[in-house]
What does this fold into?
Amino acid sequence: MVVRRLAQGARLSMARLPLLVGKGRVPVAPVHNIRDLWPGDAATGAMLIKGMMTQEGYTHPIGPGMWDNPDFEPAFREGLHSFRWLRDLRAMGTDAARLRARALVDDWLLNPPIHPMVRDCTVAGARVAAWLGHYDFFAASASDMFRQRLMARLLVEGRTIAALLPPECHDWQSLTALKGLLAVAVAMPEYTGFLSRYRRYIDAEVERQILPDGWHIQRSPEVQLRALRELAEMRAMMQAAQHALPHSVALALDKMSPVLRAMRHGDGCLALFNGSHERSSTLIEMVLSQATRTRVVANAMPDGGFVRAQSGRSLLLVDAGAPAPTGYDHNAHAGTLSLEFSCMRQRLVVNCGGGFLPEWKKALRQTAAHSTVEVEGLSSSDFHEDGTVARRPAHVEVDHATREGAHWLSLSHDGYYPTAGATYARRLYLGSNGDCLRGEETIEGERDLAFVLRFHLHPSVCVQPGTQAGTVMLEAGEQTWNFRATGGEVVVEESVYSGGLRPVPSTQIVVRVAPNAARPPATGEGTPQVPVGVEDAIPAGPGPAVETAPGRKRRVIRWALERDRGPGGE
It folds into this structure.
């Protein structure tokens, strides 16, 4: 490791030596045009013209000479120096926006920031890709001196990225570093070392990150989108230069796209697992169209550990895996066995989403921010101070069976065993027409435990008390759904939804079970009587039954969420 760092440092020092500008060593313009593929936000661009920038939930004034402001948060600083915001200025399409982009880039070139993050290969990769992707927008009509200065810097940045490879962190952003190196290689093909270095590392990086079923190893729909976007940009760059796309990239694009389609609700946006936000349905569709021509949706995702069950116009998504493995877990959530449920374009049951600000990010990673069971105020996974996972379920079991359009899921994990001596089993049933979702939640342990079952609701869902105890009515647009549960106290509490740019108030249905609470009379050893009103909670089907180990305490919540079609049906 020490030798590697010394060699890397030597290469970095050589990479950043001054170039012989004006003596034929630096190209006057990119040989191949690279076009940024993604839409910007004109409103954000208008803020930039006024001197204000928003990145990752933070807003600061920005202008010439302000690149190293010590008040910048790391997430804001990364977004600032990535220059992805150039597409927001481009979206305005005005001369004022073009001149503002040129002025900011030129100030950066004349006064290069000294913060270490600027030299990070992932940030540098995003920056050079942004500069080259928007070259026609802000640089093509500029002076010869500006363009020469820009091209000289691009060469330095390319050498810097090459010197820092392979990246120490192998998350999706390492693809950004390789994308930046490829961008410089395409723009300056006479420097053949850039392309050869890209080809040297890309296969191993893709193999390391993309699982056999097409899931990104970080197990986040949003990361899936980001990684797929990076690979799609690589394809476009290769096409611009008429180079053959590496087989690993082509295969990854074909495998990842069905997974991303599978993790979209009816509104076209992303499900909220492992820190994801909804993101723009337009952007998601654009990424998919750039990645593949097919519209296949993944049904089985065993390596990624997710289950997708669709019946009628209803969609059930379940996180049926442990958090991402060590090294890829800094954004993982304690949401094992959590679910999301939607009907047509209407989201009903959701997870709380991901946080941009540190305090929100930490809170939303806990099990309580997910639609699943929380035992004694604990989470199914714990986290170190640096954000990595300290403890995770050792065993997660899943069985998914279908018959005549209906789905049965039998799931379990032992994430609560080290802390509370308990295991959690969840059985779910989705009817063939999609109008009925039923569940059975079982906590089995060495003693009676307090636990809660949470169903976080989308902010568009209006909650009304039901006509009977243990029931709640949900009004979502033109849809009406009725919820009922037995085995615990049903209450409606405040929640928060962070699927967009900022958290907004929402509600949640909570079913609470107190320790040593009265149990329903047993019909047999270890088998509680089925509560009145939910006899049909899980219809008989091909899924395995839950068995109780001798001498263990077992508590069960049974619930149903059913659509009210009204007297006339639909």
Remarks:
- The chain is about 30% helix and 25% strand.
- The CA atoms of residues 179 and 234 lie 6 Å apart.
- The chain has three domains: 1-15+25-205, 210-299, 305-516+554-563.
- The first strand starts at residue 52 and ends at 55.
